């Protein structure tokens, strides 16, 4: 369990570049590593809880053995006081057995306590490492997103001014120039037609004035 946790940490710290080289999504991979690390922590918490329960059980058994030792001692005294030496001897023999058991249980309880302390310390270290990796993940995710954005922008910028883009602009420029030329030509034609119409209209107007002037002279006897 703990070995696997350290392997995950190693992958995060030293093999990130290898993942990137393989075109793996670093954000998804980092999230996966964190989920696996969290699972390791849950397993470690379960192991610590079991070890603590085992220590409590051993401690209770040790206390029960100690109480039985004391009980057999008192019973041996009572048997001797009652003049039953054989019963007192049997009580003392049973006392010795329970003393041996108590000694064994005490040693097991002390070892269990030590193992519990070791596991709790390892669990604490795992949680500290998890927090460090969580912060590092946030930093790496931000860097990955920044790198993606930069790459996207650079690709977009690299396409600006490319041969295809320049050719497209040239085609559009040529089309606009053609539109402008057509508009200018149509304007010239309209102006030419208008000038001709104006001259013809002016001619008509002149003829009308001359006729009116002749008529007026005739009336006045000027002719």
Mean pLDDT: 80
- Tell me the helix content: over 70%
Helix segment count? Answer: 5
Distance between the termini: 134 Å
Q: Give me the Rg, rounded.
A: 53 Å
Q: Indicate the proportion of strand residues.
A: under 5%
Characterize the biggest β-sheet: none
Unreliable stretches covering 5 or more consecutive residues: none
SS-derived structural category: mainly alpha
- Helix and strand pattern: HHHHH
Q: How many individual β-strands?
A: 0
The total tally of domains equals: 2
Spatial shape: rod-shaped
Region (Disordered): 143-204
Biased composition (Basic and acidic residues): 163-197
InterPro entries: PspA_VIPP1
Pfam family, one: PspA_IM30
Summed up:
With 223 residues, the protein is an all-alpha fold. It contains 5 helices and no strands.
Description:
The chain is 93% helix and 0% strand. 10% of the residues are buried. It is rod-shaped. The chain folds into two domains: 2-159; 161-223. The model has no long low-confidence stretch (mean pLDDT 80). The chain is an all-alpha fold and 223 residues long. Helix 1 (2-14) packs antiparallel against helix 3 and helix 1 (2-14) runs parallel beside helix 4.
């Amino acid at each position: 369990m703990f070995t696997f946790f350290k392997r995950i940490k190693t992958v995060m710290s030293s093999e990130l570049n290898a993942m990137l080289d393989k075109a793996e999504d670093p954000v998804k991979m980092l999230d996966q590593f964190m989920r696996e690390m969290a699972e390791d922590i849950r397993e470690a918490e379960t192991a610590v809880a079991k070890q603590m329960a085992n220590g409590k059980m051993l401690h209770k058994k040790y206390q029960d053995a100690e109480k039985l030792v004391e009980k057999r001692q008192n019973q041996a005294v009572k048997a001797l006081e009652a003049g039953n030496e054989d019963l007192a001897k049997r009580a003392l023999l049973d006392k010795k057995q329970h003393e041996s058991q108590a000694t064994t249980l005490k040693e097991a309880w002390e070892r269990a306590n030590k193992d519990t302390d070791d596991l709790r310390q390892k669990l604490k270290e795992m949680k500290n490492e998890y927090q460090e990796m969580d912060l590092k993940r946030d930093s790496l995710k931000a860097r990955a997103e920044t790198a993606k954005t930069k790459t996207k922008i650079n690709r977009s910028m690299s396409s600006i001014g490319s041969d295809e883009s320049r050719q497209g602009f040239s085609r559009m420029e040529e089309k606009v120039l053609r539109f402008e030329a057509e508009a200018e030509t149509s304007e010239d034609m309209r102006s030419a037609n208008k000038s001709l119409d104006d001259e013809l209209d002016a001619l008509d107007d002149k003829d009308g004035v001359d006729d009116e002037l002749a008529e007026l002279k005739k009336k006045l006897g000027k002719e």
